[in-house]
Amino acid sequence: EIVLTQSPTTMAASPGEKVTLNCLASSSVSYMNWYQQKSGASPKLWIYGTSNLASGVPNRFSGSGSGTSYSLTISSMEAEDVATYYCLQLSSYPWTFGGGTKLELK
Amino acid sequence: EVQLQESGPGLVKPSQSLSLTCSVTGYSITSNYWGWIRKFPGNKMEWMGYISYSGSTSYNPSLKSRISITRDTSKNQFFLQLNSVTTEDTATYYCARSGGYPRVMDAWGQGASVTVSS
Using CB atoms within 10 A of its CB, is residue B5 exposed (0-12), middle (13-18) or buried (19+)? Predict the structure, then answer.
């Protein structure tokens, strides 16, 4: 099983601040998907195929990475970005999620 | 637009079976992959398994002896059965569609909260 480790677990960012969330895989994966989950809602596809923004996702978000190291970056933090972000690998069975990064507003 | 909706009991007794239904509208379950994911208290998420467009299944080995995913194509529904539940199976259960290349889990239900307690 591929274990995904997300860091940091929790972080707070000021409006306008650049934010980088990390996802480290225990073995190489072909690509990474990211999900945004707000309190009381189901996860929403946010970034797929490592770097493709899902429909409706603001272009201040970007994704990058390869092999065992992937990241989600917000170029300029906004209040609406407060949420928990999960990475998910579908390259190898069983599919596995990271533990999540809770992003708060400073 | 595809929509998924989970339904089923919110409370299950230990040692019994947990059964949930996912009703799909706007898309046929004879295409793509249809699966179950759960989120535990404390936010850990686990992929449980899926049933494919052809009816084949894939399960997380951590659940393999307890889980069954089936479907009714005439009703465009698929089902989760988890046997011999314990309090550790208390979670919010989501159904979701997967597919495409690169593969993506792109549509989710709203989630069903299930508590295992006597």
Answer: middle
